[in-house]
Input
Amino acid sequence: MIDRKTDQAQLTELMSVFPVTAILGPRQSGKTTLARTFSADHFFDLENPRDAAMLAEPQLALEPLSGLIVIDEIQRAPNLFPLIRHLVDTHKKQRYLILGSASRDLIRQSAESLAGRIAYHELAGFRLNDISAEQWRTLWLRGGLPPSYIARTDASSRQWREHYVATFLERDIPQLGINIPAATLRRFWTMLCHYHGQIINYSEFARSFGVSDMTVRRYLDILEGTFMVRLLQPWHVNLGKRLVKRPKLYIRDSGLLHTLLSIRSFADLASHNKLGASWEGFALETAARALGKRNEELAFWATHSGAEVDLFWQDHGKNWAIECKYANSPRLTPSMSSAMNDLDLTHLWIVYPGDRTYSLASHISALPLAAVKDTWQYA
Output
């Protein structure tokens, strides 16, 4: 088993402060495995018929318990949230670790009843810190979902991902109460792959898919809420320039992106017209997780004249940015200089697939992807 020390440490800190901690993330991202490392006193899996039957009368089942109580797939029982609020308020020896695969619903259901009592931790696939940094190419091709990454061969990894996509569409989506034909949503998801790394034009996409703007937004909400898609919002500052104001779209797991694009190997990837976009999304996800920022704390910046940075954030009262380039030796460009000046950046990193860090200009440097880990001290 691959240890996930960063996530364990972050969860340990949250659980020491809050009586309820939620691990949210896509199916098969390792939520259950991670939760079991905390030696729960009681463990309920709502996909297990026996456990579901035990919680049919939840107050009778939970009230006598003490210690750490884990409830997996809790989105299946939203009626538990008010009861958990009552129990943690009246039974100080109880702590809860709840796991769910649908972020939007889970947060909405828990926010009102557990406000001030719950913390959220998002668990995606493996981090660069979880594996050997030299294995980033395998992580890029296969994605971070544990069964895909640790598969014996690329072929078996691809086969697992193909079944994962089918199961997600045919079983997981209907279980969330969403009634969209699996074939329709798969075609939509596949079309999104061709917008990966691009600014999304809802009207243009709606015309291409043959539906309304509202339908496109609804389908995107579903995929974003189940951790399949990242919508990165633009950063607006009063520059007197025409700025891009629509979000940028990414398929979050690079392995699933490659599956939907029928990319089977590095040879396929190297010759594919989405090579640069695939790298951008992979490097961006790696950086976002290393930064430990929520999606709403991150942005991109672009002007209609072509200046842009892929990732922008604020920290320590300063502005920082990353540009992702699939190039052997990135060079300084006018776009980088414009971003430095217009955004008042403290530093701009160009994340690339090389093996050395070097300076391009004052406060602009090329940074190997392998260096963008949770131990990266950017400030």
